[in-house]
Amino acid sequence: MSSAVLVARGLSKDFTSGGQRVPVLSGLSLCVRPGESLAVVGRSGSGKSTLLNLLCGLQAPKEGLITVAGESFRRPRKSSERSDDDARWAELRRRSIGVVFQEANLMPALSLVDNVRLRAHLAGHATGGERGWLERLGVGAEADRYPDQVSGGQAQRAALAMVFAMAPALILADEPTGSLDRHTADAVADCLFAMQGDSGCALVLATHDSELAARCDHLLDLSALDPAGTE
Ligand SMILES: Nc1ncnc2c1ncn2[C@@H]1O[C@H](COP(=O)(O)OP(=O)(O)OP(=O)(O)O)[C@@H](O)[C@H]1O
Ligand SMILES: [Mg+2]
Q1: What is the whole-number distance in angstroms between the Cα of residue 45 and the centre of ligand 1?
Q2: Does residue 187's CB lie within 6 angstroms of at least one atom of ligand 1?
Q3: Are β-strands 71-75 and 63-68 bridged in parallel, bridged antiparallel, or unpaired?
Q4: CB of 126 closer than 8 Å to CB of 90
Q5: Does some domain include residue 11?
Q6: Which residues does 142 contact at the CB level (< 8 Å), separation at least 6?
Q7: What proportion of the chain, given as a percentage, has pLDDT over 90?
Q8: Residue 192 included in any domain
C-alpha cells in the first residue's frame, strides 16, 4: 500500500475564550493515503474548520505530530527540531496542499482563466493548460469572465480548477458546496470526486452534508470525540 500523504497523531487544540481554556480537539489521529478521501463531520463548533487549519499550518496545535507530503511538524517542539515551520508550511501550501473554502476565493481583478494560470504558476507548473482545466470543470465558456460575472457554482468550479491545476498531493475542502443549491452542489461534488480520482490526490472534506460525506472513503465524526466531555 502506498505511503500516506497526510498523517496526524495526537492532535490537540485549545482556544481561550473569556479567560477560560476551551478544548476543541483532543488526541486526534488520522491518516489519508493517495487517492483516498476522508469526510470530517460533526455539529457546528465541533472543530472541523479548526482541524483543516491545523492540517495546512494556518494554526498550530497545542500538541501533536502532522506529516504532509513527507514534511513533519511537531508540537511542542523539541529544542533539536527545525524551527522553520512557517516557511515549510508556506511552501507546502504553494505546491502540495490545495485549499477550497465554502465561498470560492478567487482574485476579483483577474478573469477565471487568469486565476487558474496564476495558481499553476505559483505552484511551479508551466502555464498553458488553464482553459483545459476550466473546460473539464464545465466552465470553459466562462473562462474570460471575472468572478463577479459568474454564478456561485461557476466560481466554485473555477476554484476547483485552480486547485487541480496546481497538482496538489492533498486537497483540504471546507464546506466546498455549502453555499450552493442541492443540484449545483451535486454537480460540483461530481467534478471534485471525478478529478480527485483521476489525479490520485488525497482529499479531506469538512461538511455538514451527509450525502456528500457518504461519497468519501472514510468518515471522521468530531461530535463523537467531544474533547470537553459535554456529550
Ligand atoms: N480564533 C478562535 N478563538 C476562539 N475560539 C475559536 C477560534 N476559532 C474557533 N473557535 C472555537 O472553536 C470551536 C470550533 O470552531 P470551528 O470553526 O472549527 O467549528 P466547525 O466545526 O468548523 O463549525 P461550523 O460547522 O459552524 O463551521 C468553536 O467553539 C469556535 O467558537
Ligand atoms: Mg467550519
Answers
A1: 5
A2: no
A3: antiparallel
A4: no
A5: no
A6: 112, 134, 149, 150, 154, 158
A7: 81
A8: yes
Q: Is any ligand 1 atom within 6 A of the Cβ of residue 15? A: yes
Has residue 16 been placed in a domain? no
Residue 106 lies in a domain: yes
**Which CATH number belongs to the domain containing residue 110 in this structure?**
3.40.50.300
Q: Which domain holds residue 172?
A: 32-59+97-224
Number of the ligand closest to the Cα of 174: 2
* Residue to probe by mutation, ligand 1, list 12, 16, 26, 46, most atoms within 8 Å of CB: 46
Number of domains in the chain: 1
Ligand 1 pocket member 227 (CB < 6 A): no
* Residue 143 Cα to ligand 2 middle (Å): 30
Q: In this structure, what C-alpha cell is assigned to residue 65?
A: 505530530
Does the Cβ of 42 fall within 6 Å of ligand 1? Answer: yes
pLDDT in tens, 178-210: 888 898 899 989 999 998 999 999 999 999 999
Q: 47 vs 75, 109, 163, 174, 177, CA distance in Å? A: 18, 33, 24, 11, 18
| Greatest mean pLDDT range, 24-38, 169-183, 188-202 | 24-38
